[in-house]
Amino acid sequence: MQDDPKAINRRQFIRNSSVAAAALGAAALTNPMGAFAAPAKTRVALVGTGIRGSTTWGMNLLRDVGELVEMVGLCDVNPDRVKVAQRWMGGKIPTFTDFDEMIRTTKPERVIVTTVDATHYQYVCRAMELGVDPISEKPLCTHDYQAQQIVDTQKRTGRKLDVTFNARHGASDMKVKELLLDGEIGDLYSVNYEEFLDLDHGASYFRRWHGLKQESGTLLCHKASHHFDQLNWWIDADPVEVTAYGRLNKYGNNGPFRHANCRLCTYKKQCEFYWDITTNKQYMELYVDCEDQDGYYRDGCLFRHAINIPDTYSVLVRYDNKVLVTYSLNATVPYEGQLIVFNGTKGRIEMRNFHRQPWEVDHESEIRLTHNFKGSKVITVDPQRGEFFEHGGADQRIKRMVFDPSMPDPLAQRAGLRAGILSSAIGIAGYTSIDTGRRIRIDEVVKL
Ligand SMILES: NC(=O)c1ccc[n+]([C@@H]2O[C@H](COP(=O)([O-])OP(=O)(O)OC[C@H]3O[C@@H](n4cnc5c(N)ncnc54)[C@H](O)[C@@H]3O)[C@@H](O)[C@H]2O)c1
Questions:
Q1: Which residue CA neighbors atom 20 of ligand 1 most closely?
Q2: What's the 197 CA to ligand 1 centre distance in angstroms?
Q3: Nearest CA to 203 among 304, 321, 296, 288?
Q4: pTM of the predicted model over 0.85
Q5: What ranges do the domains of the chain cover?
Q6: Among 3.40.630.30, 3.40.225.10, 3.40.390.30, 3.30.360.10, what is the CATH number of 167-251+307-445?
Q7: Å from CA of 50 to ligand 1 middle
């Protein structure tokens, strides 16, 4: 599945292009500040100055691709938080709490949307109506009516939309795409994707707005939209039908006690999930110091009764090229990682990513390629680590690709409306299946 079906064709894809891709990936990995000539600066505004907006698409955007981007305006519903972002970005960028006013006043060419998931569609659609090309964080949308509104608005306005699927830019994810395009395992039969989130990262979703379905569309939209997009991209086909199950096993009502948030909690000593936000200066400025404006607790209790999303998911997806996917996400496990398996006519690829696992590994990421009746080999591709690199270098790569249209795209990593809609649609179909006990067709969710 690609945004432009003519952009890359598997049968036309010859080995040379994967060599070019490897070279491109290597250049971007070793030199994330860029191996390509810089075009003119784009006037960019940003709505949603939380941690993702203020850092990755704020301070770090200017740090990483400052020669390509001029940040002209910042907007957030929280008037204090937008001022924090302004300060972090040098103190001069104009701030707004009204989106239309920001667009009218600053006249951006592009607007980056990094608000709470369920509100992305409002700004994506409004930007297009106002003649601006939006760039949306994932998930593009969290409900069926939002998906349809985005599709219809884009058709009417003809605007360009980018969706920032940084998970297409992980070093091992790119390597798998290359192996698939090279036909190493022939035509795909099936994919098994297991995502495990540990008791720190996994639990963190339940402290925040993500634990509310109305804000995040469950973890099948908020988190798994990354994975569903990767699947659509790797499989290179459209999802047709989804069946899912989900349960809330650990958080929410399952807790033995609860309070509004950790800071004021009377169970600090008993609770194995107690988390002290006061040790994090950045979070104190961005969230705690801004609480008076919206009452939002970044250190919210993960046993709140209000939590209404599962922490454990099993999903089946059928694709229009007959590929079958088994996906699971579990946010209650002792270590982080992924196990992703591709079965094809000529062999099998297994990719393992580990993080914070309690045993020694030589490489955080390992790909085993096995050919039928032939040998098997391990390919190691380690992500980049260090303060500079976000998500193993993927965030640096995607910023450059979004803002430099001349950058080659041999692995079809650029993602737009179709990719954004179809990944969200699997998540929406998934939670609808959980709620109704039915198998849900993608065309029940949205008509493209
Ligand atoms: N691709 C990735 O790896 C990645 C990583 C983290 C977050 N994200 C995405 O980035 C987005 C922001 O996440 P975050 O972690 O920064 O959350 P956050 O809670 O820190 O920030 C959200 C911001 O949106 C603001 N907001 C809420 N409703 C709004 C509205 N109606 N209008 C304007 N502003 C509004 C909030 O005040 C807050 O400042 C989410 O969509 C999330 O899915 C993506």
A1: 50
A2: 20
A3: 304
A4: yes
A5: 167-251+307-445, 260-294
A6: 3.30.360.10
A7: 5
